[in-house]
Amino acid sequence: MVFPNAFDKLYIGPSGVPVDVPANSGTLGAIDKCVEHGWTTMELPFVHSTYLKLPEAQQVALKVRELGFPISCHGSYYINLNAQERTKVGASRGRIVEAGTRIFQAGGHSVVFHSAFNLGMESAEVTRIVIDELHKVEEELAKKEVKVWLRPELTGKPLQHGDVDELIAVCNGVETALPCIDWSHLHARFGGGWNSYEEWCSVLDRLATGITNKNVLQRMHMHVSGIEYGPKGEKKHIPLAQADLKYKELMKALKQAGVCGTLIVEAPELSQKLDVEMFQDAWDAA
Ligand SMILES: [Zn+2]
Predict the structure, then answer these.
(1) Residue 74 Cα to ligand 1 middle (Å)
(2) What CA–CA distance (Å, rounded) separates 99 from 47?
(3) Distance 281 CA to ligand 1 centre (A)
(4) pLDDT per residue over 60-90, tens digit each?
(5) Do strands 10-14 and 42-45 pair parallel, antiparallel, or not at all (unpaired)?
(6) What is the pLDDT of residues 173-231, one digit of tens each?
């Protein structure tokens, strides 16, 4: 499942390793545990560091190709392509390049990141800056012959760059960019909106018509979770059973639109197994 192939179905799995995997099992053990649970994908959280080292990454690549088990990574939390200080922008680019390179070496397809903070600037201006900086990231990756989708994420707070229209603009401006659609962030970002079949269908339609020449609905990468929110958006992930997200309708909207790709469930540790199963069951029943 390597860039830039389309996916043949929807793969569902956790963010981070299965919580019941023994310590020191590494990423290889985590993938085995996912398979044991019947989970078909996983996202590696490189959010504090790119912890997967090259020798294991090379073994992971063999395994995921053999299993047909797509993997992705979530890049560093410390990324702001719109930082005031140029050194911080350069470091942010470096973090995307580092995570993207390692997940490519591990046979993965995408690196997810939160692009930027808006810092009170016009949306179009931040979008232009994000596109410029991602061009430089693309150049770096191309030099290393790394082929991986850059996945700016739909973010959970209005202070962060990354609403649906901004993502569409970035994906049209950057050849190797496709969105990471976090449906729970969309819901939380507007203090509880975007929680119905019709609204989700309309977003999928906007993506399909807005992003040109990329066959986006067959190359979707998504995050979902139960989420707690307030007027300023996202607060924290909560167990799906305690959340108000109409996840069955969401799965119905995805199936109706023929979505293929990867759906990553970001659950609190305690409810990880149950939450992944709830999404999988809802998808199967949709
Ligand atoms: Zn994220």
Answers:
(1) 7
(2) 9
(3) 24
(4) 999 999 999 999 999 999 999 999 999 999 9
(5) unpaired
(6) 999 999 999 999 999 998 888 999 999 999 999 999 999 999 999 999 999 999 999 98
Q: Which positions ≥6 away from 165 have C-beta within 8 Å?
A: 123, 206, 210
> Can you give the pLDDT at residue 4?
54
* pTM exceeds 0.85 for this model: yes
Q: What is the DSSP letter of 271?
A: G
Strand partners, 120: none
3 state DSSP class of 164? helix
Q: Separation of 62 CA from ligand 1 center, angstroms? A: 27
- Tell me how far the alpha carbon of residue 76 lies from the centroid of ligand 1, in angstroms: 9
Query: Across 20-102, where does the E strand assignment appear?
Result: 42-45, 71-74
**Residues of the chain with pLDDT > 70: what percent?**
99
In this predicted structure, what is the pLDDT of residue 275? 97
How many C-beta atoms surround the C-beta of residue 20 within 10 A?
Answer: 11
Distance 114 CA to ligand 1 centre (A): 6
pLDDT tens digits along 124-164 = 999 999 999 999 999 999 999 999 999 999 999 999 999 99
H or E stretch at 79:
none
In the chain, the domains with their CATH numbers are: 10-285 (3.20.20.150)
Question: Are 204 and 217 contacting, i.e. CB atoms less than 8 angstroms apart?
Answer: yes
Q: Give ∠ CA 190-42-107 in degrees, rounded to 5.
A: 120
* Contact assessment for residue 254 and residue 11, using Cβ atoms and an 8 Å cutoff: no
Residue at token pair 């976090």: 182
- φ, ψ of residue 127 to 5 degrees: the values are -60, -45
Q: Is the Cβ–Cβ distance between 71 and 108 less than 8 Å?
A: yes
Phi-psi bin for 192: left (phi > 0), alpha (psi -120 to 50), beta? left
